[in-house]
Amino acid sequence: MLGKLRSILHPLNPLTSQQLLFRRLLSALAYRSSPGSSDEEDDPKYKIRKQDPEGEYVHLHKSKGQHILTNPRVLDCIVRRAGIRPTDTVLEVGPGTGNLTLKLLEAAQSVVAIEVDRRMVDVLVKRVADRSFGDKLTVIQKDALKAEFPPFDLLVANIPYGISSPLLVKLVYGPNRFRNATLLLQKEFSRRLLANPGDSEYNRLAVNVKLVADVELMMDVSKRDFVPIPKVDSSVVIIRPKAQVPTVDLNEWFAFTRTCFGNKNKTLGATFKQKRKLIEILKTSKTSSCKSGVAGCSLDEKDGMDRGEKSQSGNITFSSSWDGEVGLLKEKIVSILRLGGFEDKRPWKLSNDELLHLLRLLNGAGVYFHGHAQPQVTEDAS
C-alpha cells in the first residue's frame, strides 16, 4: 500500500474527494504501523518515492521544515493569484520535489530555484526534464540565507518554517527590486506579520516589514494539504514593496524598535526610565555624535568617559562618574516623551508614522540608539 504514496509527486491532475480521503487514510495507516519508531526518518509517512526504476525513497526531514504541499487546487490558486506574466523570472526558495515549480514553469519565462538539499535537487531536475522544462529552470544548491539572490520579478515559495523571519527580512531589505512575493507561511507567523497597531499580535517584525512593504492575506491552507502533516495550519500572504519608503537610517530604526519592543506591553515612559537601558543609549548617543563630528563632543573624563580606555573588543568604556549624565539623559528623554504625548503609550499601539516621529524627536535632541553615524544596511530587523 505504501507504493500509493507515489501520488505525492503527481498533483497536476485534480484528485477526487475519494482519492484525497484514501491518501489520508493511507498516511494514517502507515503511521500506526510503526508506533514504536524513535527515528522519524524510518517512518513511512516521512518518505516519498523517487521517480526512478528502483523505486527508492527520499526521506523528508520534518525537523528541517520539509513539508511537501500536495493539494493541486491550492497550488493552482497560488500560481494564479501571484500575477505571473509570461516574461517574468520567478525566484522559488525551497522547491522540494517540484510540485509548485512545475506550475510556475508553465506560467513564467523562467524559474530560479534555491534548494540546499541535494536529494531534492535530483528529484526536481528529473521531474522538470521529464516535462521538457529543463531549459527554463536554474537550480542554485545553497542555503537561501547565505545565497546571493539573482535578479527576479516575483518570488513564489513554500518557505521552510525555520527560516521564515530572517528570509523575509533579507527579501524586503535586500538589494533586489521585485514586484511582489507570494509566500506560504506558518499561520501563526502570518498573523503576526499581518497584525496592525492595537492588535495583540502586533510585534517588531511587523513594524519593520511594514516600513517598506504592504502585506495581504491570500488564503489559509490546511495542514492536511502537506506531506508529512505539520503540527499547524499555514497561510499564503502577498508582500508588495512600497513605491515610497520613509527616509531613515535603517540601523538606527532597527535599534530603536528593538528598544521599544523589548517589552511591548510596557509604556515607553517605563522603558526609557530603566537605568540599564539609559546606559546603553548614553553610550550609543556619545559614539554616534563623536563619529558625526558634532561640535563639543569629547571623550574626556569630564564627559563621563575614560580617556583613551577601550575594552578588548574596541568598545569605549565608561567610568563610575557618569551617573549624573545618566540622570540628565533620563530627564531629557522623559521630557520628549511627555511633550510628544508618548510617555503613557505602549509601542504595540503605535503606528509606524508615530514611531518615526518619536525617533526624529529623540535624534533631534541628540539621543541615538545605534553607534553608526551613517546609514548601514543590516538584516537585524526580526
Task: Offer a few descriptive terms.
single chain; 382 residues; alpha/beta; seven-stranded mixed sheet; two-stranded antiparallel sheet; 12 helices; 36% helix; elongated; disordered N terminus
Number of strands: 13
- How are the strands of the biggest sheet laid out side by side? 6-5-4-7-8-11-9
**What overall form do the CA principal axes indicate?**
elongated
Decide which structural class fits the backbone: alpha/beta
SSE pattern: HEEEHEHEHEEHEHHEEEHHHEEHH
Please work out how many helical segments DSSP would assign.
12
Radius of gyration: 26 Å
- Main beta-sheet strand count, sense and barrel state: 7 strands, mixed
Helix content: 25-40%
How much strand? 15-25%
Which consecutive residue ranges, at least 5 long each, have pLDDT under 50? 1-13, 18-47, 49-56, 292-311, 373-379
Distance between the termini: 45 Å
In round numbers, the mean pLDDT is: 80
EC number: 2.1.1.-
GO cellular component, one term: mitochondrion
Binding site for S-adenosyl-L-methionine: 67, 69, 94, 115, 143, 158
GO molecular function, one term: RNA binding
Task: Describe the protein's architecture and organization.
By secondary structure, this protein is of the alpha/beta class. Helix content is 36%, strand content 16%. It contains twelve helices and 13 strands. It has helices at residues 17-32, 72-81, 99-107, 118-130, 164-173, 187-194, 204-210, 250-260, 268-271, 275-291, 323-340, 352-364; strands at residues 47-49, 57-59, 68-69, 89-93, 110-114, 137-140, 154-158, 180-186, 213-221, 226-227, 234-241, 305-310, 316-318. The strands form four sheets. Strands 6-5-4-7-8-11-9 form a seven-stranded mixed beta sheet. Strand 12 (305-310) and strand 13 form a beta hairpin. Helix 10 (275-291) crosses helix 11 (323-340). The two termini are 45 Å apart. Mean pLDDT is 80; it is low at 1-13, 18-47, 49-56, 292-311 and 373-379. Residues 74-243 form the Ribosomal RNA adenine methylase transferase N-terminal domain. It comes from Trapa incisa. S-adenosyl-L-methionine binds at residues 67, 69, 94, 115, 143, 158.
